Amino acid sequence: MKNVMIYCQTSNRAMCEVSLELLTKGRRLAEQLGGELSAVLVGDKVSHLAAEAYRYGAQRVFCAEDERLKDYLTLPYVKIVKHAIETERPEIFLAGATSEGRDMTPRLAAELGCGLTADCTALELGDCSYKDNEYRGVLKCIRPSFVANQLTTIISPSTRPQMATIREGVMAKEPLAAAVSGVCETIDVESLLAPEDFAVAVIEKHAEAQGVDLKGAKVIVAGGYGMGSAENFESLFRLAELLGGEVGATRAAIDAGYVGGYERMIGQTGITVRPKLYIACGISGQVQHTVGMDRSACIISINCDADAPIHKIADHAIVGDAKQTVDKLITLISNNRR
To answer: Check: CATH 3.40.50.620 for 4-198?
Structure first.
């Protein structure tokens, strides 16, 4: 079937942002394939979220509810989602590249005997040739390569479903003007699962307080290795404070000790952000970083190298010393507010 299925991750009986992003992308892929969009909900008292899935275009929702499923558990969740996939037989199956998605999808792929591409930043449909065979409407999974400064396209043309996990924040979240008239199909948990599937139980959870909220920031001032020192990074904090934003960083800047905390790291091995304004200071613009911020609404780059790759994706490029430029911006903004 030319359908697309989305695993909708939930937290505290609410749909996670990445799932809404995937429903939007899945809807568009289903339209291109000429199929339908379906969703899978697993948890305790989550059936009401089917209405939200309809708002994003899901025409069929598989729902498994049980108080024992309140927290993610590998064995029962994998068995339930596998059941939904075998029932629907979708062309494409997508999940978020979260800790939950990264735990579940490799096991699903192994049990279903299909391929899996992890941590994608873009998805496309297209034709391709593979081993003297021609394939139409293949899912092209695009993700950064660890080997070089480039993006890699991975396909799984001969197995179904075509599976991928997608990073949070790289897809747009766009509900429909009016919800579709969807159907919710209840999965019988009691008959599907056995007692041994609940061999592991979550006793209690402890969560650390979130100190930096880059995902929710409307303005991000990010620094790279080109900032030169931790002292120079202080200017970025002053600029971010004036603009009501947060400070982000590249891995190179954090590894060099210019700023503490990997929670500020943006890029392939960090987080993905989509602020209204992204100011890149002393950042060269290697793909390992840009995949985490190139969907920002407006990008301003500041780098003394006129040929720096970051300038090519920027809306406004400033060729000059990053520290001096940031200090001038701070002075101008401060003076205009007096």
So the answer is: yes
Nearest to 274 by CA among 250, 243, 297: 297
Alpha helices per DSSP H over the chain: 17-33, 50-55, 74-88, 99-112, 189-192, 230-243, 251-255, 287-290, 310-313, 322-336
pLDDT digits (tens, 9 = 90+) for 120-135: 999 999 988 878 888 8
Contacts of 158 (CB under 8 A, 6+ apart): 130, 133, 135
Q: Is the pLDDT of residue 211 over 80?
A: no
**Spatial separation of the C-alpha atoms in residues 75 and 57, rounded to whole Å:** 29
Model confidence band, residue 149 (pLDDT cutoffs 50, 70, 90): low
Go through 177-209 and write b for each residue having 16 or more CB atoms within 10 A of its CB, e for each that does not.
Answer: eeebebebeebebeeebeeebeeeeeeeeeeee
Output the pTM of the full model.
0.84
Q: What distances in angstroms separate CA 164 from CA 2, 94, 124, one per listed residue?
A: 16, 5, 12
User: Could you tell me which of 30, 271, 275, 57 has the C-alpha nearest to residue 161?
Assistant: 30
Per-residue pLDDT tens digits for 79-99: 999 999 999 999 999 999 999
Classify 219-336 by CATH class: alpha beta
